[in-house]
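Example protein as discussed:

>
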Amino acid sequence: MNVNEQLIFEFQETPQWSRNLAVFDLETTGLDLREARIVTACAVEIDQDGRISGPNQEWLADPGIEIPEAASNVHGITTEIARANGRAAKEVISELLETLRGFFSRGLPVVAFNAPYDFTILHYEALRHGLEPIQEPMPVIDPMVLDKYVDTYRSGKRTLEVASRIYGVKLEDAHNATADAVAAGRVAQAIARKYSEKLPDDVVVLHNSQIEWSANQDASYEKFRRGSSPDFTIQRGWPLKL
């Protein structure tokens, strides 16, 4: 098999859903899914090589509340920066919802690493500002769920930084919304290439499979934690935790 034939073979064997994706990431004021406010966001298309192929859309919002120092230390946006340069939160959230709905209406899979974090915060932000949330985001691809499914027994953390290193993806500006979003998309594509035989080719089947895989992963983690904390309970739900 020559080089061109090999490339054609690999392309044909790569799941169809991995060849054109949208990617989505939020940086926020905190970790509480109901109360966290959006500070920065990215939602953009990437091509089969993981390159940005659509308008590079990144938003900076004034969340309307103080940004805790702990959050600013992660993503670099202080309250002063957000107030001086950010747009009204309602405008940002409205545009973000419209952008994501546009992806979904085209059947374009949206990649989000730890999807319930981003989609749930966006859901409650929409309600907070009197906007219609995306009730059933679909199809969604969550590289964290995929990674736990295809490489279940690997020890260590399952962060985007770790996954990027494991799958050979460069992440040079972690916790920048665009950098994280694009890296998540590239990790999803790398998993698709490496584990194509373990993953459905149909994106709707993949979406529904992740609901089951996520539930199993949550149950396993809950069982593990209850070994030392008998009352520990994890909130279920994928790609939304409502």
